[in-house]
Design brief:
The chain has 304 residues and is an all-alpha fold. The protein has one domain. 61% of the residues lie in helices and 2% in strands. The chain contains 15 helices and two strands. The protein has a two-stranded antiparallel ribbon with strand order 1-2. The protein is globular. The chain starts with 19 loop residues before the first strand and ends in a 19-residue tail after the last helix.
Length: 304
Amino acid sequence: MTPQNTTPANPLPQYWEPRRASGAQIMRMIDSLDPIDHDVEITHLSMDVLIPPLFAYMAYTSGFARTLGNPAVANRIWREGAGDQIRTPVRRDRDTLTFFGEFMRRGHRSPQAQAVFDRVQDIHRQVKGVGNETQVHVLGMLIFDPERFAKAVGHRWFTDKENDARFNFWLGVARGMRLRDVPETRAEFLDWIDEYERRTFTPTIAAAESFKGQLRGISAYVPRPLRPAIRHLVIDTLKPEVRDLLGVSAPRPVHRPALRAAVRALRTVRPIDRFRLDRTWVNSFSRVGPDPDFDTIGYQADAG
């Protein structure tokens, strides 16, 4: 008889309790969990709870910028200046990050998760150019760019178990969204990304303009005096070939030592710092940031 999958459909609620735990306690929680059966719980603790929301937003911006290398994607985003990333970048970014937060909150096995996936795919069907291959590439950015971003700012940050769980989590999301031909191993997926980018990437005006919209979006998340530094830091974390695609030059690395020092400090204090287990990207990104006059947010999600 084939053994049945005993993994619960809904995420285990104890890892979303409205209480605080130290970083050391959370890492022990992660160590006690299985990266396949508990990929949702580990990804939540790793990405929602332990990573500062600003770092998560910067990593998202850096990874999404890479997807603009495909002219089909860039043109869809830009729409000759009429795209949401150009007109309302704050709304566009926060809606996307909130949806990703819903993925992590609902998991990928529950009926609630499937409802979110179906809603996202309904949106994709209304927009030309969001095909299967495009979505698989975005999936690859969500899997691997947190690791790449952490390395770019000077620290490994994630354990092998966290990386494995995040890989399994996003593969589960891919199944829920009914994506086809998704590579099943990390090595195969990285090879697939390289082949896709060799075949599709070329610089375009649409990519450059869409990236400017991204920078405007993340700038609104921080107080005005910090905005130039945040823009420079995001550009600095891009690979040189991605900067070439976007038509931007490497900034002078004046902010890089400060960022690396901040990352080291966060890593040093993380074991004794206390974090809310119920923190999610939904409640981090579905509300307006420090500058409400910059834009408005149109999507309010249930954080429960």
